[in-house]
């Protein structure tokens, strides 16, 4: 794609921001009509795009998402897929996937909705069209909270399949940080220590030093960096 076309594409594409409300849209899906994000009020949503149906990397991703569907549901999270393909293409591809076995995943059934975005309206609203192609979405992932607010955005190129352990880690981490009012350190995984928000006044610093004397619960490296044992709740 030449630079002129890239410049034109950039002018047409919007990029939603973390901390803003997910753009609303109505769409046709493999599970019927959808009004997003209103249909998912009270639930977390992972909205993700893929370049095209009947393609190899996308097929492995959908098999993986399908195999993990119940794990995401257990975290009050719905999955919603999208590509710039027709509804009939989606239906045919999902039916084919049910006959495949790969990497320990045997004949998975895709139970979550897949949006048909032939007019590219959703893809453009969510910045899913980038420099690789102006007709195929990249592998975008949007984590949207129960209030319809975008909490995290990931973009992958067409050639690189997503890391689903990381997608699940991000979801659990977002929910953990929101529920407990904590931050999470580099390479955090469930069960590891979390970070207590830093003090903002001298008085709070003194309180933090006193609190951190309980080394069974806290590990204070400095006044602004205090770790807390995860209680697992």
From TrEMBL:
The keyword Cytoplasm applies. One of its GO terms (molecular function) is thioredoxin peroxidase activity. SUPFAM superfamilies: Thioredoxin-like. Residues 16-176 form the Thioredoxin domain. It is found in: Cytoplasm. The keyword Cell membrane does not apply. GO terms for cellular component: cytosol. It holds the Pfam family 1-cysPrx_C. Transmembrane segments: none annotated. Its EC number is 1.11.1.24. The active site is a conserved redox-active cysteine residue, the peroxidatic cysteine (C(P)), which makes the nucleophilic attack on the peroxide substrate. The peroxide oxidizes the C(P)-SH to cysteine sulfenic acid (C(P)-SOH), which then reacts with another cysteine residue, the resolving cysteine (C(R)), to form a disulfide bridge. The disulfide is subsequently reduced by an appropriate electron donor to complete the catalytic cycle. In this 1-Cys peroxiredoxin, no C(R) is present and C(P) instead forms a disulfide with a cysteine from another protein or with a small thiol molecule. Belongs to the peroxiredoxin family. Prx6 subfamily. Thiol-specific peroxidase that catalyzes the reduction of hydrogen peroxide and organic hydroperoxides to water and alcohols, respectively. Plays a role in cell protection against oxidative stress by detoxifying peroxides. This is Peroxiredoxin. The lineage of its organism: Bacteria, Bacillati, Bacillota, Clostridia, Peptostreptococcales.
